[in-house]
Amino acid sequence: MENTQDSLVICRSPPLEALLFDIDGTMCVSDPFHHRAFSELLQGLGYNGGAPITPEFGMKHMAGRSNEQIGRFLFPDWPAARLDAFFAEKEALFARYAREGLREVAGLRALCRWARGRGLKLAAVTNAPRPNAEVMIGILGLAEFFPVVVTGEECGEGRSKPAPDAYLRALDLLGASPDRAVVFEDSVIGIQAGVAAGMPVVAIAAESREARVVAAGASLVVRDYLDAKLWAALDGVDAAATGAAAAADGAPPTVVDGERSVEPAAVPVEN
């Protein structure tokens, strides 16, 4: 289906200052490893009558959520100490499995390099625990791009996504304005958090999920970071920024063959 949102409006007040990324499902394809870890532990506990949980169950009740939120759903009567022990074991399993084959969403590294070349600030903002987040970024080899990592659990009890706190904290640490920043997300609650923090959100989603993420507030929906729609949108932000700068100088932007002379953001090619 076609995205009915204006695909070029991903920055409210160009030029861009910052890009903020969720991690699970947005920076990397991590759901299979989370599912494997949860399924193994839950089966051992006899959850769901000992039957394996399905990927659909994981997407509905776990994806994008903090351990606090997942724990309340899975085991509402468990004391905090028992939940902490369960999630410590789960995260250790996840880290072990992720090292076997965690991979980035296509084109992410190219976008990070493009952003760094333009002096943009980057942050990772996640509902995952910090050790988990740092493991994923490390496995991907992207730590150099993400000196700022903000986790929902560090924002206080009940302040994980969909609350905006983690994104607002990241903006503060970066010294960036929400009008000059864009969020990349894959989950409905993550999109809601970015929108609540006052930023446009680019959703990484398959066509089958497009209606849901647009309903949650996504300004643009792309399949991955190689999607031509994303690079057209970035080109549109560049053009708007160049036009605004020219207007501030009292001169119109240079026009060549009927087009503004803005170097387009080329779609990167994966090696």
Automatic annotation (TrEMBL):
SUPFAM superfamilies: HAD-like (SSF56784). The keyword Metal-binding applies. GO terms for molecular function: catalytic activity; metal ion binding. Its cofactor is Mg(2+). Pfam families: Hydrolase (PF00702). InterPro entries: Beta-PGM-like, HAD-like_sf, HAD-SF_hydro_IA, HAD_sf, PGP-like_dom2. Residues 249-271 are annotated as: Disordered. Keywords: Magnesium, Metal-binding. This is Haloacid dehalogenase-like hydrolase domain-containing protein Sgpp.
